[in-house]
Amino acid sequence: MSKALTLTVNGQDHDIDVPLTTPLLDVLRNHLGLKGSRYGCGLEQCGACMVLIDGMATYSCSREVGTLAGRAVTTIEGLGSAAALHPLQQAFLDEQAGQCGYCLSGMLIAAKAFLDQNSQPTRSEVAATLDANLCRCGSHPRILRAVLKAAAKMHPRVD
């Protein structure tokens, strides 16, 4: 049974008519045309589908859209733009942190949520945070460097 609801994604309200049990990832990709979040496993085990919900990194593959009334969803498309990249996006480019790129939207989203809470992370903290995001092409060392580079830019040390 479908039900009309309003979903706030990347600062814009969208009226959608889907069953309330529809996964958020399906709505983002198939109804709103936001293809940055990817389907990887459907079991909250790879991180390719991560989005921010009220600033918290969340798996969208299993999150039912009916649970999101009054919540703010941010996808990778809402993180920055081609004209104004987010510091994380720029750092990932600078460090050539992606090969195939399939995991990158989830990595960027997880890193954003983490850096919003931890302004001076260590390499081991970044690695532990991104452990839930799988990268099959072996870009982890560059990804870790990119997150640390972005952290330094986003939160410069004041000594």
From TrEMBL:
Transmembrane segments: none annotated. Gene3D superfamilies: 3.10.20.30, [2Fe-2S]-binding domain. Keywords: 2Fe-2S, Iron, Iron-sulfur, Metal-binding. Residues 3-79 form the 2Fe-2S ferredoxin-type domain. This is (2Fe-2S)-binding protein. It comes from Neorhizobium petrolearium.
